[in-house]
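[Meeting: bench + compute handoff]

Bench side (C.D.) handed over the final construct sequence. Compute side (W.E.) agreed to return the predicted structure before the next meeting so the bench team could plan truncations. Sequence as handed over:
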Amino acid sequence: MSADLDLWPIGNCQVSALIDRKGTFIWGCVPRVDGDPLFSALLGGEEPADGYWSIELEDSASIEQSYFRNTAILVSRHTDKAGNAVEVIDFCPRFQHDGRVYRPTAFARIVRPVAGSPRIRVRLRPTCGWGNSCSTQVGGSNHLRFVSGKLALRLSTTAPVGYVEEESLFRVERPLHFFLGPDESFVGDLANTLDRMLSDTVREWQHWVRGLAILPEWQDVVIRSAITLKLCQHEETGAIVAALTSSVPEHANSERNWDYRYCWIRDAYYTVQALNRLGALDVLEGYLGYLRNIVDNARGGHIQPLYGVLGEAVLEEKIAPDLPGYRGMGPVRVGNQAYEQIQHDAYGQIVLCNVHAFIDQRLYRMAGIEDFEALERVGERAWKYHDQPDAGLWELRTRQSVHTYSSAMCWAACDRLAKGAEMLGLSDKASFWADRAEKIRASILDNAWRPETNRMSATFSGDDLDASLIQLLDLRFLSPDDPRFQGTLTAVEEGLRRGSHMLRYATEDDFGLPETAFNVCTFWLIEALWMTGRKDDARALFEEVLTRRTASGLLSEDIDPITGELWGNFPQTYSLVGMINCASLLSIPWSAVR
């Protein structure tokens, strides 16, 4: 199995899987993205015995992989030393059926012989209970059952089930179909049904992509990033997870291994902001429904930085002892202690997501007075805590400060509430929130501006640099021609840029000095370079970063600025957002090519 992050995601917004360059499923959780990993080999050490699903061609010589155009469906062509070949199509069914979206907890594979007399071996070795083997039971002539506790799955197949169970080599002389899903009888002809599911899923994805508003340049980058962001949404509730994986370390043996399979208010804000630019309003509408439930449950009180995909508030962090970790670099964490943290920026991100609904007339459900009143409770929290310490967006675990980024997000909450009030014709409310926004703005400038070093500080108490200061431009807190922003940009670039990559910060945190760059920070820098007139520099840096993508066209959270090796959870929404935003900003318009 591959020992790197050169992986291909598939999914259906209910479940997902990561497939390596050998065509093997090495990560995938059930019954949803934050569940138990059925495929856990990604975190199973150097030579995992279980936790994968491979279809191996005897005497394999080469494997070529690509997605069906504008879909999340992977095709792997395996060729052996004699020229015999098979094509393996991997997908999770997703399409409209009887007026609703059919997205089962299921994985489908179709094997087609394309040359000669190929022989394959199927190894399906799922894990249950975070790394333990599932018990296997032969259920009949056409299926296998995998059982562990409450979890029961069934593999229905047109392949000889005995060969699959025994992992025997056998010749492929006709198309073979595999459907791993709920433990229930498969209704209908398996081959015909999976072929139809495949064509319906292709059509569904291509229809979704056709509705994206993209610009001429870097279309492949934007489309692949958008599809993958869509995979990160749990469509049932609208939650958007930060990544599809847990515990891929930020760099080698760092123990910076975190579970990202939850919905961070901050990460989801950036995701919907990017997809809104492309007109993918279905993701926004789903997420706003999720947010309304979060706000209702808070009842005007504390809002956590993250929640489970069903809105769970408690995400207790534990260690999975039976999984050695990515390349053996544990620990493997389940849950995330950050749910207990105080991070005041969430108030701004909730309002920023929702204010779109007061303006955009394309939405099925536009926001009204009741929504505004609910958001005012969030605004009250932003006003109360805008100058209070928190863990910050980098989620420091052992110390707190008044972070400029968090305070600026609280300003944005009040500023955008004023704009929402204007849209609703509430002039008194507009003045009320605009006054609060102006007071927060004055406080930030008084407490974070450092005239002696000609830059904003990342905290009110020190003279600290971190890349989040660049976001003062995106929030419209400072303009690109403001000398304070220009001085800050110069300081951040000089202090944190390492070649073609940007660090989050260059000071010690809970785990020492960071060794890898944070990909989204580089995209923030590219946007700032463009907006301040350094357009050639911005384009050159963007093109350079794009060369770091995997074969699937994606990025993880982190990158070694020296070797270019990817680290951190994958695929990471921040990084995909950065590619979309920069491509949209830097591209020439359609009028230039018509």
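W.E. noted at the follow-up: The radius of gyration is 25 Å. C.D. will use this when planning the next construct.
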